[in-house]
């Protein structure tokens, strides 16, 4: 049996992800951001003061990768790390004013990419597309 990449869900999803990333990068690069830090920023914009473990678990990123990402974010003035007030062994990650000020523009760029990508679908098709993707993710996530 031959492999047909044009009809492979994995291949097409990977291609789509790379295209989303390329367009997002173009939108957030002028803000001094890259796609590597964007997922962590999204989570921190939702809930500031989480731990590195929280980020690793929520974003499903390997611990060493997250450590490097956080080091870059700290170097770039986007986060600070402070000891937890109740457990000194734990460090919490806090957004800086600089990072908070970027939220509207950065998420606006992401929303613009999403709108552009889904523009060829009706609102009903967009909802169905998102629902189907979530089901595939859930299926793969539960089969690990």
From TrEMBL:
Pfam families: MarR (PF01047). The keyword Transcription applies. One of its GO terms (molecular function) is DNA-binding transcription factor activity. Residues 6-138 form the HTH marR-type domain. The keyword Transcription regulation applies. InterPro entries: HTH_MarR-typ, Tscrpt_reg_MarR-type_CS, WH-like_DNA-bd_sf, WH_DNA-bd_sf. It comes from the Bacteria. Keywords: DNA-binding, Transcription, Transcription regulation. This is MarR family transcriptional regulator. It comes from Hwanghaeella grinnelliae.
